[in-house]
Amino acid sequence: MGAPSHAKLFAHEADALRQVGSPTAPELLQHGTTGGYPFLVLEALHGQTLATWMGTLPDRGAARLPQVRELLAGLCTALERVHSAGLAHRDLKPENIFLREGGTLSLLDFGLARFTGPPRPEGAGVPGEFSVAGERLGTPLYMAPEQCLDAREAGPAADLYALGILLFELLTGAPPFLGSVEEIRHGHVSLRPPSVSGRADVPARLDDVLRRCLAKSPSERFARAADVLDAFEAACHLAGPAVHPASPPVPTPSSLPSAGLRALALLSLRTEVPVDTLLAILEAHGGLLARSWEGGYLALFPEQLSVDAGLRAGILAARRLTDEGPTTAVLHLAELHVRPGVTHPRVAGAALTAPGRWGAGEGLPGELRVTAEALARLGPGTTRVGPGGEHLLVREAVALAPSAEPPPLAGREALLDSLCAEALRSLEAGAPGLCLLTGEVGHGKTRLLDALAARLEAPGRIQVLRLRALPPDTTSPDALLHALRGAAATHPPGSGAAPASSGVQRHVLSRVIAENLRQRAREVPCVLLLDDAHLADPTSLDALEMAALDGTRAPLWICLATHPVLQGMRPHFGERSARVSHATLPPLTPEASRTLLLHLLRPVDLIPEPVLARLEHLAQGVPLSLVELTGALRAAGALRASPGGGWYVAPDALLDVSATPLFDRLAARSLAELPEVHQVLARLCAVIGTEVGVGRVDAAMRHLEAQPGVEPTASWDAGAGLERL
């Protein structure tokens, strides 16, 4: 039975259960409502879930090959029936797989199922009706890459990916990707799964089977579940079922992560957040509630595979709690004794028995403190100096500060005037406006936004909000959404609901942000400028588009500076807006290039025409190239003082000036801005040469897998890495 608002979800699952039928799914006995509350009546099942059975496996939790083969045969049969019925399950995990008494296997919980085609039950909804833009459906440990990015793309191939995760876990005792929710999603989207034969005593040919099951692209996976079983049997040379796992051995706890004396992250909390919300947030980041007292809690993170991962999980949990309500936290690092437990590790130590010694519970309301022990392991940019010591930043910085000495806007004056006029017209009309400013890398989008913000802010009557989207693998996936929510808030940011992975919640959140932006603009006319919008998450883009919907009223103007790729990803973006405009940043004209060159080469007063022509040719009208080129000239000593006074550009130095040093400087800067793993991958591609393909990069990475110092790159999926570069 569910809440009245869940009526459509119950009807959706009832349609799926009817279409699949028993015994692949529980038999649907009745579906209806009583007193406005929807309900389903299903047959009573006798047996146990696969999760319960897996919990009884001895040692490290791996099953024997004959057991795996029998389970896989049942799973593949069930998936074949589901897919042939025109559905994708989309939440395949041990808890949703039921081993009936007698040997039949059933799938549970079709609430996230997607109808993929005929036959359809009469009166059913639209296929994929519960998948909205940016929605993440499923359980993180078993989610396919397309589910991690956008659930609308998740179909039967996502079930085959989850089947591969289950197969990996049955063979090795653990899923291929572990850690916080963000780390697990990052693994699914970007990392290669470990070799199954390197973790378990199984035939090496199974590596190829798992590699294809867990391919990042749906088209590269097996076409059908039956093909997975055929490939498994061919790799193992197994024939026929073995002993059914209905009579499992006595449970023996697993030992992941390792037991013994370990350094663990601890998080002391004083918060007004409800206990169920607190527990959900801790669980999402691999945390456990160790102790509680009046108004206070002590959490620890024993399930993370490293100290740094544990601290990161504690930071993310603390930040999430501050979004839910007033929270005071202290992050600490201490050595504790860890040993396996039936459901979760058992932990003991002085830091737990006497938390007051390290400052647990201290701090003023809203403070997120860090002890010296934790600070020693945290990287730069995570904390700030505050009263009483180091404090965590409430959220990672995404606001964009203007440059101290910006270069002149040569050749962009008319476009700047046009954008200002468009913004003012929208504000004066009281109708939200949306502008897409597109340009290639280096064409000056950020510089133009700086000038636009300065001009609009100058009269003092308009509030300008500046934000920037960051690459998803360099920050929290929700960093921009958090910042946008804070910018839109007309009340303290911690008083609303925090972003969640549920598609329905994210859709609601985008509508709330949109309305809050309009409400803020009704109080004071507002302009929002977002840089690098092509890197923004779908929920943030939805919120900005909704804020400017036709038929709404507010003095609000939104400008998104973006690479043209955004128009390919969302070709209809902004079409529902009341006032939508597009502007393009082309390369500079020769006249504008010269104006910028003359400024960048100051204090040189007189530059010969051939010198200017050569520099213009090298830069090709790209402002960033002009900046880097003149910087290279200064570094090379090409700007020299004349004996009679003044400065000149040395003609002999120009003989050595080419595009090569320019691109060397740009490459060095671009590499420095990449995460470390991408830096190594880029250098690997440079060594491979001009014919860089997924196959060649993947082969090179596998060759390097055992080499010291390159493990992070060796674990990166070649296709995902090349796409990121």
Automatic annotation (TrEMBL):
It comes from Stigmatella aurantiaca (strain DW4/3-1). It comes from the Bacteria. It is an enzyme of class 2 (transferase). Its EC number is 2.7.11.1. This is Serine/threonine-protein kinase Pkn1. Keywords: ATP-binding, Kinase, Nucleotide-binding, Transferase. Gene3D superfamilies: P-loop containing nucleotide triphosphate hydrolases (3.40.50.300), Transferase(Phosphotransferase) domain 1 (1.10.510.10). One of its GO terms (molecular function) is ATP binding. PANTHER family: MITOGEN-ACTIVATED PROTEIN KINASE KINASE KINASE 20-RELATED, SERINE_THREONINE-PROTEIN KINASE NEKL-3. The keyword NAD does not apply. Pfam families: AAA_16, Pkinase. Residues 1-233 form the Protein kinase domain.
